[in-house]
Amino acid sequence: MIWQVLIAITIFLVVFAAAHWVIRMLGVPPPPEPDPDDLDEVEIAYACAVCGMRLTVTAVAGESKAPRHCMEEMEPV
Ligand SMILES: [Zn+2]
User: Fold this and answer.
1) DSSP 8-class letter at 55
2) Contact residues for 69 (Cβ-Cβ < 8 A; gap 6+)
3) pLDDT per position as a tens digit, 25-52
4) DSSP secondary-structure letter at 71?
5) What is the pTM of this model?
6) Centroid of ligand 1 to alpha carbon of 22 (angstroms)
7) Taking the CA of residue 67 as centre, how many other CA atoms within 13 Å lie in the half-sphere pointing to its CB?
8) Ligand 1 centroid vs 53 CA: distance in angstroms?
9) Ligand 1 centroid vs 48 CA: distance in angstroms?
């Protein structure tokens, strides 16, 4: 009986913490629009290793970082 109560409390705390995290993430405002003068023109092709989708990045602000698709970081091609 005591184990059932402890397990129920643990499940409640995990669900509560997950819900709290999701609600906090929804409350974070998006980053401000980048200044067009800060964009560097590039041409970097990426491919998704999961589904094969390809895309070409034509402008980056600051440090270039591989985009993500299918929850994975895309690979340069
Ligand atoms: Zn993909």
Assistant:
1) E
2) 48, 50, 51, 53
3) 888 888 788 788 888 999 999 999 999 9
4) T
5) 0.55
6) 24
7) 16
8) 6
9) 5
Residue 39 β-bridge partners: 61
Q: How far apart are CA 66 and CA 39, in angstroms?
A: 16
Distance 72 CA to ligand 1 centre (A): 7
Tokens standing for 10?
Answer: 């643990």
Strands of the sheet with 39-47, listed across from one edge: 54-61, 39-47, 75-76
Residue 34: both structure tokens together? 């980048």
Q: Are 55 and 45 in contact (CB under 8 A)?
A: yes
3-state helix, strand, coil in the chain (%, to 5): 40, 30, 30
pLDDT on residue 38: 86
The domain limits of the chain are: 1-30, 33-77
Which residue is associated with the tokens 């990426």? 46
